[in-house]
């Protein structure tokens, strides 16, 4: 049965120690296309066999899948199915991998999406610290810490939610943030005294808000208003409404939320001279090329090349008081 082969695939991947996020994404990709295979065959998912996974059937299923998903999602699903079918070949379930007959979309090149505006990050932090975000139960100590974790540590949403109180390690003045990122890769980010103070103020506010709750070292760092670990939806809403009340919503790239803060962190690192290896270590990238994108996006080399255009010398020699050329 197809489902049994998929279970065997995940069992074989256990030594890789994939993160729960990665495993869930793989299951969604396999499940989405499997449902379409079942629909086209007129049978239930449980009735499908590995022999039903033919090149024509997969082409039709991926065609349906592509109609409702972005290029990046289709490319990721293609990769998941290619790995699954490669496993099936290796374990003797099928003789060949049919994915070679399924067109893989070319994903658009990714580019950083930092906040726009030179002083936008500073305005955002100031607004969050001042309690600009209007809520029934304002909690500026928490709001500003969330924004800071994105802007000065470059954390992803899942990484923020995974932080524990004991993720902050070291003596005052020499503290570091221990982060578990994608693929269960761990990294340690140095933090400076301003962020140490923000963390201290936030922890103090937790003690005041939840005096009867035991907040031990293993407790999640970021809490909601009930004292529970902050959820993904609540975190997204917190960031979006902070943008709104800070008056910078038009400075946030379309489709970006907390990730815009991470991209701002990385872009500023590149602008201030950090190399790709340093950016890779601080952001937890698996590929050096991803880190290199931020350096290229700053455009320093391109700007220097453009500035060398000798026609600029002619422009510089023009009299600034000369009349404008009619349009």
UniProtKB/TrEMBL annotation:
Ranges for domain Core-binding (CB): 1-89
Stretches assigned to coiled coil: none
Protein name: Site-specific recombinase XerD
One GO molecular-function entry: DNA binding
Keywords: DNA recombination, DNA-binding
Organism lineage: Bacteria, Bacillati, Actinomycetota, Actinomycetes, Pseudonocardiales
Similarity section: Belongs to the 'phage' integrase family.
Domain annotation Tyr recombinase: ranges: 110-307
GO-annotated biological processes: DNA integration; DNA recombination
Domain of life: Bacteria
InterPro entries: CB (IPR044068), DNA_brk_join_enz (IPR011010), Integrase-like_cat_sf (IPR013762), Integrase_catalytic (IPR002104), Integrase_recombinase_N (IPR010998), Tyrosine_recombinase_XerCD (IPR050090)
The keyword DNA-binding belongs to this UniProt entry's keyword annotation: yes
Keyword DNA-binding found: yes
Pfam family, one: Phage_integrase
Organism: Actinocrispum wychmicini
């Amino acid at each position: 049965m197809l489902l049994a082969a998929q279970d065997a695939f995940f069992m074989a991947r256990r030594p890789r120690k994939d993160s729960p996020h990665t495993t869930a994404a793989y299951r969604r990709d396999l499940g989405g296309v499997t449902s379409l295979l079942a629909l086209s065959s007129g049978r239930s998912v449980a009735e499908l066999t590995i022999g039903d996974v033919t090149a024509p059937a997969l082409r039709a299923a991926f065609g349906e899948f592509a109609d409702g998903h972005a290029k990046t999602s289709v490319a990721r699903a293609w990769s998941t199915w290619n790995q699954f079918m490669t496993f099936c070949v290796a374990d003797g379930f099928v003789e060949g991998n049919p994915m070679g007959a399924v067109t893989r979309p070319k994903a658009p090149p990714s580019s950083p999406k930092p906040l726009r505006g030179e002083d936008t990050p500073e305005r955002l932090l100031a607004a969050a610290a001042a309690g600009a975000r209007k809520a029934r139960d304002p909690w500026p100590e928490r709001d500003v810490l969330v924004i800071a974790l994105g802007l000065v540590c470059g954390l992803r949403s899942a990484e923020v939610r995974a932080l524990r109180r004991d993720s902050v390690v070291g003596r005052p003045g020499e503290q570091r943030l221990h982060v578990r990122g994608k693929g269960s890769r761990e990294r340690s980010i140095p933090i400076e005294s301003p962020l140490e103070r923000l963390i201290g103020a936030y922890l103090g506010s937790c003690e005041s808000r939840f005096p009867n709750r035991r907040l031990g070292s293993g407790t999640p760092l970021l809490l909601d208003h009930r004292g529970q670990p902050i959820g993904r939806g609540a975190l997204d809403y917190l960031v979006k409404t902070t943008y709104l009340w800070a008056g910078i919503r038009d400075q946030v790239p379309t489709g970006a939320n907390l990730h815009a803060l991470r991209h701002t962190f990385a872009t500023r690192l590149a602008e201030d001279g950090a190399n790709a290896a340093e950016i890779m270590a601080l952001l937890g990238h698996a590929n050096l090329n991803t880190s290199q994108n931020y350096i290229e996006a700053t455009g320093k080399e391109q700007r220097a090349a453009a500035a060398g255009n000798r026609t600029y010398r002619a422009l510089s020699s023009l009299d600034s008081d000369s009349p404008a050329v009619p349009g």
